[in-house]
Every structure is written in structure tokens, then in C-alpha cells.
Amino acid sequence: MDINVAEITKALRRQIEGFEQSVDVAEVGTVVSVGDGIARLHGLEKVMAGELLDLPHGVTGLVLNLEEDSVGAVLFGEVSLIKEGDQARRTRKIASVPVGPGMVGRVVDALGSPVDGKGPIESRELAPVERIAPGVTDRQPVKEPLQTGIKAIDAMIPIGRGQRELIIGDRSTGKTAIAVDTIINQKGTGVICVYVAIGQKKSTISQVVKTLEENGALGHTIIVQASASEPAPLQYLAPYSGCAMGDYFQFHGADGKPASKTNPGGHVLCIYDDLSKQAAAYREISLLLRRPPGREAYPGDVFYLHSRLLERASKLNDDLGGGSLTALPVIETQAGDISTYIPTNVISITDGQIFLESDLFYAGQRPAINVGISVSRVGGSAQVRCMRTVSGTLRLDLAQYRELAAFSQFGSDLDKATQSQLNRGKRLTEVLKQNVFVPMDVALQVASVFSGTKGFLDDLRVEAVLPFEKTLHRYLSSEREALLAEVRTAKKMTKEIEDGLAAAVSEAKKLYLADNPSAKV
Ligand SMILES: Nc1ncnc2c1ncn2[C@@H]1O[C@H](COP(=O)(O)OP(=O)(O)O)[C@@H](O)[C@H]1O
Ligand SMILES: [Mg+2]
User: Fold this and answer.
1) Residue 15's pLDDT is what?
2) Cβ proximity of 285 and 62 under 8 Å
3) Ligand 1 pocket, residue 436 CB under 6 Å
């Protein structure tokens, strides 16, 4: 018998090809059990955590659990069509969403598909929803202010671009209102905003969309929604998706090319409203995946859920284009209790918190910010200089006022100094009130705070403070444009600016009192 070398090689090659196909089994798995949007799969020995799976009927799986003899995945899509015995195939990809300028002005779901009925989104790029946060050397300290347009915040709890500031409070204390005001105030600043709505009612979300539209703020905003009616996996994913859509702009220049020293990156504001709901969704998934429950039944890695998201907020160094991503996570508390698991976690991850209180809200102090326990640990260095100067003593004055106010409830004979301190405090509190959806230019904020701290309001009746403020702002905007411009940009508060402000406030007060003589005490 002839031994033909070519034939043997061919036979061997066939064998080898066959061998590789049997290896392919590691790429395919079988659904062992399915329910509640969770599937357990057999096979898929090489699958990685976070990888996407292809299932029948266009269903996608996201691998979360890697166990000894099975794999646990959450499912997206027509989950009810998946049955035991269905095949799942590895994709070697991790969850990605479309990113780019085409997303701006749109409402999308957690997977980046449009839900606003405005047609398909033009986006050629996909970005993984998870990415490792920029390292220490890739960053620089925050140096530009992120103006919220809310007096109480910009004066006392200033936020810088790249910072993480928590908005925390019970339901209906104005958390979303602060977020929406801040988005509206970014109009014309070039800051792209991403509003991620997690676990909220659809009607609430559409209200936010409507408000943004009416205030001309949709043009610079992406809205990612995973409403309460959507499955837990989407609510878990939505903040990461929103962050991925946001950090595209941080890492790219206006031309769409990667940001660099010569191609400055963009500025982004991400709002996660709210992370308590995301944590609850994650708890639900984890329990279904049979992960061991820990404190408050949350899985052990719930801290990592929020830390890896919020660490992505950063101010990049100049070599990387100097872009920034500011994060405003929202947490809802129960009866003002911030010592439960999720609030303490997120407080420890962020650079400060804005604490909202129902009592203040119902007493008419709106925004209902508790100034005593609200802080911003990094934004001060980025604050507009004139604001920093005029608001210097504000916090202390208000703290003293609160103490005196509580004390003076018991006695009626107050000495003159105490009386005047109380009067001042009342007017300072009043001047920090602000309605929703009227964010205020920082120079006008400076004028308001200045008139309060310098005692110009002391001889006005408390009810007259806000009407007077209106007159003051109208007067400044029409007559003192140059002064306002200086206040916005000055490197420090000079004697001239201070004298200018004092003159302007006196003048406005004369105008106001001429029309409202009864406003004087
Ligand atoms: N500064 C404010 N002045 C007046 N009303 C406000 C203010 N902030 C919030 N509100 C109102 O309070 C209600 C609850 O606010 P919202 O932001 O939805 O609360 P949360 O998000 O904390 O549940 C809304 O109707 C909102 O218009
Ligand atoms: Mg809300």
C-alpha cells in the first residue's frame, strides 16, 4: 500500500479542523432554567463576566455570575419567549451603547435605543457601558465652577466641574428640581448634560422632559430612562449607559477626534436620579441570581456598584484635553435617615452632599437645603471669586441665626444685638429662597447675597425681600451691565467692585421704596 504524504496531511488537517469545532462547545451554552428575567446556563466555559450572550428571538443576555458548573445571566428583550433548552452563544463583546453627538436632544432607554418617537439615532460609534475610571495621574484638581444657578448652592455649596456632589433627601423635597434647574442653567455654556431617570414613574420622567423642552434645555441634554415599569436589569444598567454617553464628550474634542493637549475635551454633567432605585434593582437581580444577601439584603458588592460609577466623574489633565465629567447622584432617604446602608455608602464616595429636608420644604424654605450639614469639599477652589468673598460669612451667620432662633423661642426680652442678629438671619434666609426653573446668573446671585450680608435688607420687611430682589436684578441688568461682567470674571473682589455693588443696591432700593413705601420697617 502506498503511503501518500499529501493524503495523510489532508486527513490530519481534517481531524484538526474537527477538533476546533468541538472546542466551539465552550462558546455555546444551554438554558437550564429561566424566570424573572434571569437565566442559568450550562456550558459557556470560557464566557467572561459582563459579556453579552445571543439568545433566540433577539434576546440578549448579560453574564453576571460565573459559577463552577453554570453561568447566571440577566436577559433583555422578549424574555418570556426564552425556554429551557434554548441555545445561548457567546458574543465576546461587553454591553455597549451608541454614543456621539447624535444622542444629544434625545430620550433613549438603557440600551441607547430611542424612545421619543423622533426616528433612529445617527450614531456610528458604540462605547462599552463600563470603563475603568481615569487614574490619578490622568486627572487634575477641579478648577472651573459648575454653576447650578441656585443661590443657596452656588453661594455656600459650590460645585466644580469634575466633582461628585450628592443630592440627598426624602421624596418630594425638591431633589429633581435642583437637577433640572442645573441642566437648564447649562444652556449656552457648552456643558452637555445627561439625565438618567431610574425607577421613576413614566409620567414623572415625561414631566422632566417637558420642562427641559419648555426651557430650551433639551438641545444640550441626553435623557436615559429606565422607568419603574422596566425590568430590574435595565434599571441597573441605565446609569452606566448614561455615563458612557457622557464620557464620550469628555474624551473627545468638538471635532469628534480624541481629546488631547491641542484638542480640548468637552464638559459633561451627569445626573443619576436616583441611585437608591438602582441599588434596589441590583439587589433584586442579585437575590434572583442567588448571591448571598448582606446588610439590608443588599449583596456584598453594592458599594462597588456605586463607586465604580461615581469614580468616573473626573477633571482630566491638560494632556488628555482637560475635559470634565461632573456627577450629581441623587439618593432618596426614608424619614430623613441618612445612616442606612446606601446613603452612607454614597456619602462616602462623593465629594459632598446637598441635604434636603421635608420640614424646611413645608415651612416654605425652598430650596429646602439644610445648610448646616450640606457641604462641598472641593468646589470652593473653583468658585467665582466675588461670590467666594461675599458669601464668606454667610454660612456662619446662618448657623448663628438658627441657634439664636431656637433659643429666643423661650424668652421675649432680647437685647438689641441679639434682635438685630435675628433680623439679619431672617432676611438672609429669605434672600436664599428661589423658585423652580429660574436659575440665576452668578453676578446677580452675588448682588443678592451682597445685599443680605451687608445689611441692605435689614430695614425692609421680610416679605419685601424677594420683590426687592426682582427690582434689584432688573436694575442691574439694564443699568449696570459692566459691573455684572466684572463680578463674573474678576480675579478677586476689589474695593471698586464692592463700592459699585453698594451704590447699585442703594440705588435699586431707592427705586423700589419709591414704588413700595410700605416695604420699610
Ligand atoms: N425651590 C422650589 N420652589 C418651589 N417649589 C419647589 C421647589 N423645589 C421643588 N419644588 C416643588 O416640589 C415638588 C417636588 O419636587 P421634586 O423635585 O419632584 O422632589 P423630589 O425629586 O425630591 O421627589 C415639585 O412639585 C416641585 O415643583
Ligand atoms: Mg425626584
Assistant:
1) 79
2) no
3) yes
Of 193, 247, 248, nearest to 223 by C-alpha is 193
> Please, where are the H alpha helices in 227-311?
232-251, 275-288, 302-310
Sign of CA dihedral 149, 152, 154, 160: negative
Please tell me what DSSP assigns to residue 285: H
Ligand (nearest to CA of 173)? 1
Q: How far is CA 150 from the centre of its chain?
A: 16
Give how far Cα 19 sits from Cα of 15, 66, 301, 334, 450, Å: 6, 26, 40, 59, 80
- Indicate the top mutation candidate among 366, 370, 430, 434 to test ligand 1's pocket, ranked by most ligand atoms within 8 A of CB: 366
Residues paired with 41 in a beta bridge: 31, 71
Amino acid at 2: D
Active site residues: 377
Q: Hey, which of 436, 437, 466 would you mutate to test ligand 1's pocket, going by the most ligand atoms within 8 Å of its Cβ?
A: 436
Residues 6+ apart with CB under 8 A from 441: 149, 484, 488
For residue 422, count other CB atoms closer than 10 A to its CB.
17
Q: How far is CA 263 from CA 210, 245, 256, 323, 358, in A?
A: 34, 19, 10, 10, 46
Q: For 20-30, what is the mean pLDDT? A: 71
Pocket lining: 171 vs ligand 1, CB cutoff 6 Å = yes
**Residue 204 CB less than 6 A away from ligand 1:** no
Assigned C-alpha cell, 161: 466641574
Secondary structure percentages of the chain, helix, strand, coil, to 5: 45, 20, 35
**Ligand 1 atom nearest to CA at 434:** 1
Per-residue pLDDT for 20 more than 80?
no
Q: How high does pLDDT run on average in the chain?
A: 94
Cα separation of the two ends of the chain: 121
Answer whether residue 21 shows pLDDT above 60: no
Instruction: Name the band, by pLDDT with cuts 50, 70 and 90, for residue 13.
Output: confident
